[in-house]
Description:
A: alpha+beta, 10 strands, B: 9-stranded mixed sheet, two-stranded antiparallel ribbon, about 25% helix
Amino acid sequence: MTEEREALIAAVREFADAELAPNAARWDAEKHFPTDTLRRAGALGLGGVYVREDFGGSGLTRSDAVAMFEELAKGDTAIAAYISIHNMVAWMIDTFGDDVQRERWVPGLTEMTDLGSYCLTEPGAGSDAAAITTSASRDGDDYVINGVKQFVSGAGSSAVYVVMARTGEPGAKGISAIVVPDGTPGLSFGRNEQKMGWNAQPTRQVVFEDVRVPTTNRLGAEGDGFGIAMRGLNGGRLNIAACSLGGAQWALERALGYVRERETFGAPLATNQSIMFTLADMETELQAARALLERAAAKLDEGASDVVPACAMAKRFATDAAFNVANTALQLHGGYGYLHEYGIERVVRDLRVHQILEGTNEIMRLIVGRDLVNRL
Amino acid sequence: MKIIVLVKEVPDTYGERKLDLETGLADRAASESVLDEISERALEVALAHAGSADGVEVVLLSMAPESAAATIRKGLAMGAASAVHIADPALAGADLGLTARTLAAAIRRTGFDLVITGNLSTDGSGGVLAAMLAELLEVPNATALSSVEITADSVSGTRSTDDRAMRVSAPLPAVISITEALPDARLPNFKGIMAAKKKPFETLTAADLGIEPQDLSVASSIMTAIAEKPPRTAGVKITDEGDGGTKIAEFLIENRLA
Ligand SMILES: Cc1cc2nc3c(=O)[nH]c(=O)nc-3n(C[C@H](O)[C@H](O)[C@H](O)COP(=O)(O)OP(=O)(O)OC[C@H]3O[C@@H](n4cnc5c(N)ncnc54)[C@H](O)[C@@H]3O)c2cc1C
Ligand SMILES: Cc1cc2nc3c(=O)[nH]c(=O)nc-3n(C[C@H](O)[C@H](O)[C@H](O)COP(=O)(O)OP(=O)(O)OC[C@H]3O[C@@H](n4cnc5c(N)ncnc54)[C@H](O)[C@@H]3O)c2cc1C
């Protein structure tokens, strides 16, 4: 690691240690979304890690980002994961927006005084995202948006919603990406979903009833929306996977401490070979996941042609490996692992959803498999 | 106005601090090295002033092994404009006298209106460096300030003692030392970290400063003995056989703890 990367990671670690870790259990229990803490994350530079610098981004690389999200997640996985989604939104506007759009939305997003949400999934369209039915119909210089988005992270707290809506033919080619600011008439939100984990950040439906925004709120050209949404997800998948890695690494370190101290049958747990083997496998899985993630991040930085399957396989492998490691860390703690107090079960609950969102791990296999077969 | 902040790299307080019994030096490899928190607070005093007044330049100065460069750069990331690092193996194990002579030479070379130090470092805990520097630089000295106000030509503050708080002030140039009562330092942000690598960073040797570390004509202290700190002995266990309370009271009285 370069001295500069080390200094950046050290700053993230200090932030996670001071601002996230001491509060993670309470935020989970109270379902509290700490927007004030997020503003401090923005001041640090976490609001637009790989957003260009002219409107407040940090201008860093994807390789920097994965190392940062891993560190951040050691403090609070759910908050780190929200910051990852926020970064995806900020990057989409920065990359596909024109200068007027960038100047309007990027500064607030990078400072995290304005939060961002990504609105793709619908009640009737998850994995098959090209089947969305939320419509944006042209009316003069405006779009009028109608439909429902499901499972939107940050919804209700965000200032900026990037909405994938149908502006044309069925399928992927008829979709556009449109920015809808909070407060636009006709925009409303469902209740905060009761979830297994990710309790420190809200997940709600976003409802559009004749929501009118100017066509100048569209990112890119009409019909580019699906491609924009998928491009966002490449980096999103890496960051979510990095959050898994951080949560699991934290759980592994807890388990290491525990098995050295806890005695059964007159000896520390760590003296059992089966436990040593378990620890060795946990470490190996996480190192392998980290290597795959670093590889995919480097490809994203280089703009390699196989970036999509590289991100998909890293996301699939890392989120599965990390969930299993966290769950094993819980098992190694015996009954104590099941108590909120030890924090391990929270990480297990938080990491579970990383196997589902930003493309389920089955869809990741579909991407990798299709790429393989098509290459023949 | 030029403010020089003296920063020191020290072993992390959370780690166990050890002395190397062979050399008598602090074992720096035994725990992680960090910027001393009191140095960070001293830097915060300077940066806060630089943020509220025009034309204030904040310079970091440290005498530390070459490996401390990354730690010093953290101060640049926090907002200092430049750094001077005196890194010379010949200065390893310097006593307070040599440390003060060397730092004073560097301060003169850089030029200054105000020098800010911590009142007491976490590792050496000498607590006299600020006074020694003021003597060598022939400027006024205000130590252990728990509040600081800086103007264009003076520095003043509160100096707390056991029974009262004093108001002190001095015309510039001057040397001050500050206490832990002053605010925590700001965290460096990514922009600061990225900017730090482009800021002037000067590395000097003792010779560059005209300092002869082995100069025997200058009084210096000699460490004559060093020992491992004695292992903690087991405490006294009082078993309660109905008279536990009395026994504890007797123990406390006997040891003049009551
Ligand atoms: C807490 C949370 C937060 C979320 N945040 C966001 C957000 O911010 N923005 C957003 O747009 N979405 C968000 N989502 C939605 C998430 O991305 C979707 O839930 C996910 O893409 C899966 O869609 P689905 O739930 O409709 O499942 P479905 O698509 O109905 O899939 C059901 C099951 O079938 C499998 N499956 C589907 N198709 C195939 C196939 N062809 N072959 C094999 N197996 C298949 C899936 O892998 C899955 O196991 C969030 C979800 C959750 C739970
Ligand atoms: C094993 C051992 C033996 C020692 N033997 C002797 C001895 O025999 N005689 C003797 O006089 N001293 C001795 N010392 C002390 C050592 O020389 C001092 O630690 C050192 O000179 C710096 O002083 P301090 O940290 O105690 O200063 P303090 O006065 O406690 O420091 C106050 C402030 O001065 C500044 N400062 C201190 N040092 C530096 C630095 N290097 N660079 C930049 N700023 C600095 C910082 O702002 C600090 O907060 C010994 C130390 C050790 C560990």
